[in-house]
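REQUEST FORM: STRUCTURE PREDICTION
Request ID: SP-0412
Submitted by: Lab K.M.
Chain count: 1
Length (residues): 269
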Amino acid sequence: METLEILGYASAILMGLSLGLIGGGGSILTVPILVYLLGVDTETSTAYSLFIVGLTSLFGSFSHMRMGNIHWKTAVIFGIPAIISVYLTRHYVVPAIPNEIFKTGDFILNKDIALLLFFAIIMVLASYSMIKKKKGEVKTEESEIQYNFPLIGVEGLVVGLVTGLVGAGGGFLIIPALVLLAKLPMKQAVGTSLIIIASKSLLGFLGDLGVGREIDWILLLIFSCIAIIGIFIGAALSKKISGSKLKPAFGWFVLIMGIYIIFNSLMQQ
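STATUS: Completed
RESULT:
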């Protein structure tokens, strides 16, 4: 096993730690780890990320189930359009993207670079939501859940599309939507988000199996098991370490990574 491969598998624990400590953000690291450390091509890495993110989030949701932090009705209302969107994106949209998207002079924008650039932009947007300070107090008390069905449905479709294209769980989009559109308390929003991420990511991964993509199951299972260990460690540490204090620091790390990916991708042209 080469040094980069060892680092790649070791880095899987960072993904789990982030999910356990701050309730999201970790999945945004999966594609860069797969591409730069484990040598997986970009399109395949987005497929692998769906499986890894989905399985890790599923295990992470178990403790929230025990604590009653999952609002199942909201999960279904938000999850169904998200699941449909991510499956259709993986099964039809991603395979339909041409290998050569744009060419001018010596500059060629191919499919892998385009997906990586789009992913990097998502990283930058995600980092902003982690870094910015929230105004006012986050709602923690249980209250009557109110639904804005059209907006929740549209948000589910958008999150599914983003997840399908870049393989990230989209927790940074889902949690604010659940708080603002469904009026969920933050703890329930985090727990509900994990079960939505798990279901749409794992079912979205079926879209890749449907197009006959060759899967390295050994890599997937090893990476996933390490990430799952990380999420349990993160959940334990979250009782002693404030996730709200770690979130901005992690956000800056994600921002730097996103900017690096953008420049590195463009410099390859």
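NOTES: Residues 136-141 have pLDDT under 50 and may be disordered.
Reviewed by: T.R.
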